[in-house]
Amino acid sequence: MFGQLGHCYQFAANKITDDYSIADIATFPWVRVVDGFYGAGELASIDDFKCVNAWVSRCEARPASKVGLYTRLRG
Q1: Residue-wise over 51-68: b if at least 16 C-beta within 10 A, else e?
Q2: How far apart are CA 8 and CA 10, in angstroms?
Q3: Helix %, strand %, coil % for the chain, to 5?
Q4: pLDDT-derived band of residue 4, with 50, 70 and 90 as boundaries?
C-alpha cells in the first residue's frame, strides 16, 4: 500500500500546485495511524517511504487537520 502511495505522492510533490483532494482527506487519517496508533510503522517499513511521510507531515500542518486532531470532545 505504501509503495503505491509513495508513487502517487512522489508524482504529486513534483506538481506546481499544492492541491488537497478528497482522496487526501480520506487517506491521511488511515496512513497516520499505522505508526501512531497501531505502532506498526516498522512492520510496514513506513520509513522507507519518505514522500509518504512528507505528505503526512503536510497534511498534519494544515489548519483544519490541527483542529480535527487536537480539539478535545466535550462531554
Answers
A1: bbbebbebbeeeeebeee
A2: 6
A3: 65, 0, 35
A4: low
**For 16-69, what is each residue's pLDDT tens digit?**
456 778 878 888 888 888 878 777 777 777 888 788 888 888 889 999 888 988
Query: pTM (2 decimals)?
Result: 0.69
The domain segmentation of the chain, as residue ranges, is 2-70
Sign, Cα dihedral of 25, 66, 7, 49 = negative
